[in-house]
């Protein structure tokens, strides 16, 4: 548990150091066009999704999670390092689609590793463990982007962010080597008793799994939509500045880090569907308020409500998804990547549709409806199962 938390903290540091500045590096430093950068970013998402599923299947098959983690973190050191040392169009594109995309699989592997070592844990203890590990990523996003931004303002080149990411991914690798316990060896009999990879893939495509993925993706799509719409609304009708955008994001991240544990405690007495409903209602109130706000103070007031809901939306779906295919930790962890992919697509599609006939306010209202629809889907699925 301690090893997973430290490893994912370094992983979060590396991501938080580069993600906000990746478009700047790709477009302004490397010289990619907006369209070319979009293609690279999309291919990286597809590569991460495919790798998450493939590595999850292999990890479950052989019962090994530590070795794949070492492999992908080593790729992270390589990917960030070559962009920093040899910045060019092809190096950036290939590193982003290849090593860096695979490095991002380490988060799902860490959650799979926790699930794999959960024997003896009650469901509540497992949920608390997952919440604490997820909270480490939020802490990284509170601390790192601002610090890196201050340093970059002195160096003048966003490429320096990749130097930090190289060092941080190396720290992630070292923490796994030193602290992560070795996997238990699986006997040949147990390995042969496991279902084939094709059978596991068929489980991913089962109606129950697909319905749950649709529900959680609709719920979490509100976060992706908000990431697009919030800066535009804050600096538009909200009357705020770029500094307000950064302050709001830091404020919400701080709320998330604190309130994730609160939601985990609530989960001891309430069902996950009840938590999804309460969090989605709070976030819907926030999104609707965004649609109509007109002053700076409303930005922060609305974000306080949104942050409470977001704390559950970023953490609770992880434990829910990990429990869908409970006997295959790697495969169930790959559902996290699939969920992020679908949720991102839904959020982007809602933004495109909403802005095609109306303004940003309509987009956020559509997002609120989508989140509540996701709760309805999950409630129906779980009701039928019970």
From TrEMBL:
<feature type="transmembrane region" description="Helical">
    <location>
        <begin position="359"/>
        <end position="379"/>
    </location>
</feature>
<keyword id="KW-0762">Sugar transport</keyword>
<keyword id="KW-1133">Transmembrane helix</keyword>
<dbReference type="GO" id="GO:0005886">
    <property type="term" value="C:plasma membrane"/>
</dbReference>
<keyword id="KW-1003">Cell membrane</keyword>
<feature type="transmembrane region" description="Helical">
    <location>
        <begin position="275"/>
        <end position="293"/>
    </location>
</feature>
<dbReference type="Pfam" id="PF07690">
    <property type="entry name" value="MFS_1"/>
</dbReference>
<feature type="transmembrane region" description="Helical">
    <location>
        <begin position="245"/>
        <end position="263"/>
    </location>
</feature>
<feature type="transmembrane region" description="Helical">
    <location>
        <begin position="69"/>
        <end position="86"/>
    </location>
</feature>
<feature type="transmembrane region" description="Helical">
    <location>
        <begin position="159"/>
        <end position="181"/>
    </location>
</feature>
<dbReference type="InterPro" id="IPR036259">
    <property type="entry name" value="MFS_trans_sf"/>
</dbReference>
<feature type="transmembrane region" description="Helical">
    <location>
        <begin position="35"/>
        <end position="57"/>
    </location>
</feature>
<keyword id="KW-0813">Transport</keyword>
<feature type="transmembrane region" description="Helical">
    <location>
        <begin position="92"/>
        <end position="112"/>
    </location>
</feature>
<feature type="transmembrane region" description="Helical">
    <location>
        <begin position="209"/>
        <end position="233"/>
    </location>
</feature>
<dbReference type="InterPro" id="IPR011701">
    <property type="entry name" value="MFS"/>
</dbReference>
<protein>
    <submittedName>
        <fullName>MFS/sugar transport family protein</fullName>
    </submittedName>
</protein>
<keyword id="KW-0472">Membrane</keyword>
<feature type="transmembrane region" description="Helical">
    <location>
        <begin position="334"/>
        <end position="353"/>
    </location>
</feature>
<feature type="transmembrane region" description="Helical">
    <location>
        <begin position="132"/>
        <end position="153"/>
    </location>
</feature>
<dbReference type="GO" id="GO:0022857">
    <property type="term" value="F:transmembrane transporter activity"/>
</dbReference>
<keyword id="KW-0812">Transmembrane</keyword>
<feature type="transmembrane region" description="Helical">
    <location>
        <begin position="299"/>
        <end position="322"/>
    </location>
</feature>
